[in-house]
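Task: complex structure prediction.
Instruction: return structure tokens for all chains below.
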Amino acid sequence: MAEKSTNVPRPPRGPRGRGVEKPKDAVGTFKRLLVYFKDYIVPIAIGLICVAISSLANVASNYFLKPIINEAIIPFIGHENPDLTRLIQILLTMLAIYIAGTVATYFQRRLLGDMAAKVQEKIRTNVFDHMQTLPLKYYDTHSTGDMMSRFTNDIGTLRMMLSQSMPQLLSSVITFVGVFITMLFLSWKLMLIVIVMLIIMTLALRVITKHSVSYFIKQQRVTGEVNGYIQEMIDGQKVIKVFNHEDTAIHDFDGLNDELNRCASNAQFLGGIMWPLTGNLAYLQYAIISVVGAGMVISGTMDVGTIGSFLQYSRTVTQPLNMITQQASTILNALAGAERIFALLDADPEVDEGTITLVNVKYGPNGELLETEERTDIWGWKETLEDGSTSIRLLKGDVRFDHVTFAYEEGHPVLNDISLYAKPGQKIAFVGSTGAGKTTITNLINRFYDVQEGTITYDGFDVKKIKKDDLRHSLAMVLQDTHLFTGTVMDNIRYGRLDATDDECIAAAKLANADFFISHLPQGYQTMITGDGENLSQGQRQLLAIARAAVADPPVLILDEATSSIDTRTERLIELGMDGLMKGRTVFVIAHRLSTVRNSNAIMVLEHGKIIERGDHDSLIADKGRYYQLYTGMFELS
Ligand SMILES: Nc1ncnc2c1ncn2[C@@H]1O[C@H](COP(=O)(O)OP(=O)(O)OP(=O)(O)O)[C@@H](O)[C@H]1O
Ligand SMILES: [Mg+2]
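Output:
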């Protein structure tokens, strides 16, 4: 497509846009796949035996023309009462072979199909389970579309390979070898003609394929682009309409569509002449064999049955060869997909070297802390010491950053030498312009990412020493971009703590000030939320996210306020919701509205990953620095 200047971004190349792919290490990948077969060795073995039986039955069926002509027809030509015993004998044998072939085909499909479906399920489970263990960094560097295509395209192609391509390849090889040997056995002289013709056909096909393959690859790539473009345009419909880019989108799509049309018709044309060409060559071969064979029959060096049977075989000998090339390329493609699946499975999971765990505690008779199974709402950190004994320290919510430096990508530090502390029950606010690193700080506390320099301690423990699950259990986060799952409002609140009762969820919603709007929804708490909360407003989604954090009832809370503008009434509701939630906890709050931060114990002003000012509201105003500018210059911080 000619380059056009356009404001609509280029669609990314879809996963199918890579053209015909070759695996880097086909043998190694296949060996790795074998692991998945080990539970199905018996059905696979029976399935493969069935493949062999049905292929051989197929080969054998053509042979019977020879005894039928030679033994059941020719001896009785002109007889008044021909003896049909031999004919019936042969026909019954043929019937038996056909039945055996059909039964074998049925079991082959059934057994191998089942095996492929089970292997597919197992791989899908493995991939999904592994995805849950991957660090966020993996998601940062791999697009959703790419990961989705592991689940859809790659695993699907793999199943096709196991259930269809592999058995067909084997069947084609057996058929070809069987047919070849039988033909040699029938007449090696006529076979010479077939071999020469096969060589000519292969050469002719190679010439055409060389040209058509490039068009097919291009066609596949452009198809990927067209699909990617359509997907992006569907996803981005709102933005397209906002900026009136409908015409540009149509124009660009036309360009891509034209290109696809061009590649497709060229590919079709070359693909189209392939069959007539091989077809004609096959007829030519048939004619030559007929003439030569007839000559041989007349001269008495061959019987009629043999030439009949041979001609029959000569028509089918090329079929398995075509099949083999076709299936081989499908298999290579599937192995390339399997390689990508394995690459995902090989991606390093999130490391968790933490040993300190979170436990429920209660006070013993002498005021000492005792671990308990019951939910006491008092939490403790349980540390196993070197001598095997355990000690329990009360969870207070004291968080400190000590000279922390962090970069998402090496060489581009986002946080520089950050030091701060939050004492239990304190409210620490972060303010600063967009991209300053506020969200990043909170991502480090719960170890979404690990610091490169410095340490973060939680109640005196380095966060790296705390088991990740337990660390995250002790903190609740209201993320900047709220995400809701498909389910009822109640389910979404309960996501904060799965064993919370309905009453606890409702209490949490009341605390978060979400109860009011929920009770006005058509089905109240049972209202279904679809597609990430599309049926709710931005503010309502946030209130639900706060309720979700409230139900978790954590000692430490991180609130990353969304930047979206919401009406002042909802804003006030959210503020009240947050205030309700903050009481008695250590809170990190990232606020874009100064009204939210004003009553914090300490306010950190961040700029380019550095804390440039700190203090409470009054002292920062008195300093007349950046905070003062932000506060007096504009109401909104970003
Ligand atoms: N996952 C990521 N990978 C690489 N860089 C990132 C990632 N997330 C954030 N950044 C970069 O880190 C910097 C700080 O981002 P951060 O999200 O902490 O900003 P913020 O202060 O929360 O901004 P906002 O007020 O807009 O929420 C930005 O320059 C951003 O481009
Ligand atoms: Mg942010």
